[in-house]
UniProtKB/TrEMBL annotation:
Pfam families: LMWPc. The keyword Hydrolase applies. The active site is at residue 10. Transmembrane segments: none annotated. Belongs to the low molecular weight phosphotyrosine protein phosphatase family. Its EC number is 3.1.3.2. SMART domains: LMWPc (SM00226). Residues 173-195 are annotated as: Disordered. One of its GO terms (molecular function) is protein tyrosine phosphatase activity. Keywords: Hydrolase, Protein phosphatase. This is acid phosphatase. Residues 4-154 form the Phosphotyrosine protein phosphatase I domain. Residues 181-195 have a biased composition (Polar residues).
Length: 249
């Protein structure tokens, strides 16, 4: 799988670019893509500061967080990153002028995020600033997320859907462990259960195997004796399935 380095750039690096950084990082985790994502600003207004409080609030609303500290964009970023993504047209034009003589062998591509909108058409992303209201940040979040999805699809990468094993069995095992009739469970060679019939307790060897039954853990080898839990599975998606998977995120 191709490894890419991506940098989002806005004017002050306190609103839109750190939001895009976190959104893209979250999409990377969900699609099992291993890209390096960062953000920076063209100006020194917020260097060393945390992102704007409204930006952080919108991220928290969606279960996300940012550990970013604002920094200024430098010429060396053209040499390090594969893609420099501008958050608005003013930044895009300045990056093109600045990068005309600083991009090494045109290895780094300068992109405009809003050009990868829904259905492949350009879209509008609010040019956020600390003076804007919360609704502007909320609107920008959804549009940035949509553009980030299209940016991923435009690279024609292999999207991998990783399904984690369920933790419900572990929770059920520990929830009623003190109430297990140990003697009856051992003598009958059956899965342990608590007095509460709604709680099903897994045996230790079954829990360690991810809940999958084998001939050693199930002497009767019966498929109906216990529900099996799926282990972590990686599944590569085709372009069409990957698009549907991204759209559902």
């Amino acid at each position: 799988m191709t490894f890419k380095k991506l940098l989002f750039v806005c004017m002050g690096n306190s609103c839109s670019s750190p939001m895009a950084e976190v959104i893209m990082q979250n999409l990377m985790v969900k699609t099992s893509l291993y890209w390096e994502v960062d953000s920076a600003g063209l100006r020194t207004w917020n260097t060393g500061r945390r992102p704007n409080k409204r930006c952080l609030q919108i991220l928290r609303e969606h279960g996300l967080r940012s550990d970013h500290f604002c920094r200024q964009f430098t010429v060396s970023d053209f040499l390090y990153f594969d893609y420099v993504v501008a958050m608005d047209e003013a930044v895009y034009k300045e990056l093109l002028l600045w990068g005309a003589e600083n991009r090494a062998d045109k290895h780094c591509q300068v992109l405009l995020l809003s050009s990868t909108g829904k259905n492949g058409l350009p879209t509008y992303i609010d040019n956020l600033s600390p003076t804007h209201k919360l609704r502007n940040f909320r609107s920008a979040y959804y549009r940035i997320k949509e553009c980030c999805k299209k940016l991923i699809l435009s690279q024609k990468v292999e999207i991998v859907k990783y399904e984690l094993p369920s933790t419900e069995d572990d929770d059920l095992y520990y929830s009623g462990k003190d109430n297990v009739p140990q003697d009856s469970a051992k003598t009958n060679n059956m899965p342990e259960t608590s007095h509460d019939s709604s709680v099903f307790l897994l045996q230790t060897d079954i829990r360690s195997s991810g809940g999958l039954m084998s001939s050693s853990t199930d002497p009767s080898n019966s498929k109906t004796s216990m529900p099996s839990c799926s282990q972590g599975v990686q599944r590569k998606l085709c372009q069409k399935c990957g698009q549907k998977f991204l759209a559902a995120l």
